[in-house]
Amino acid sequence: GRQHCRISDQETNGKTSAASSNDFSDPIYKEIAITNGYINRMTREELRSKLAEFKLETRGVKDVLKKRLKNYYKKQKLMQKEHISGDSCYDYICVVDFEATCEEGNPPEFVHEIIEFPVVLVNTRTLEIEDTFQQYVKPEINPKLSDFCISLTGITQDIVDKADIFPQVLQNVIEWMRQRELGTKYSYSILTDG
């Protein structure tokens, strides 16, 4: 039979177990904090080099590169913890990290639109990246990217002008997932930070 996902570490009588999944006293969080401190001290070139080593996007301003590398390490550490503490309830995790239109200061009235739709397919048994999907998206509400957006994401106006609009890209993602038998032969979860 199929294993059931553990939604929480609560026992059936309602008492919380000593090692709750939300317990930040776990040593893994200290490791993550130490790694984050190291990443904060890295130069832009060191960040780009480390991201390239992990086959991650190397474009963007230094703060974006730091966040990307921190997220990568955090996800790796937490997945290792899950792997050690028991089998995952999913065969795959689809890690999504959208890029979107933006303005400096992000005014409240500004409508953000996805301009990059990337998915990294991670095998939960091996913790290896098995495949990736990546397409740019043409924004329709604010079709002209701000200089701030271009600088922040590294995505140029020319790139989005040549891209498909969101409904088509979403269909492409669904087809990509269907070809990999996600949701039919293999169970999966979508993981995003944002």
From TrEMBL:
Polar residues composition-biased segments: 10-20
GO terms under cellular component: cytoplasm; nucleolus
This protein's UniProt keywords: Cytoplasm, Exonuclease, Hydrolase, Nuclease, RNA-mediated gene silencing
Keyword ATP-binding appears in the UniProt entry: no
Cellular location(s): Cytoplasm
Region feature (Disordered): 1-20
Source superkingdom: Eukaryota
Protein name: ERI1 exoribonuclease
Organism for this UniProt entry: Setophaga kirtlandii
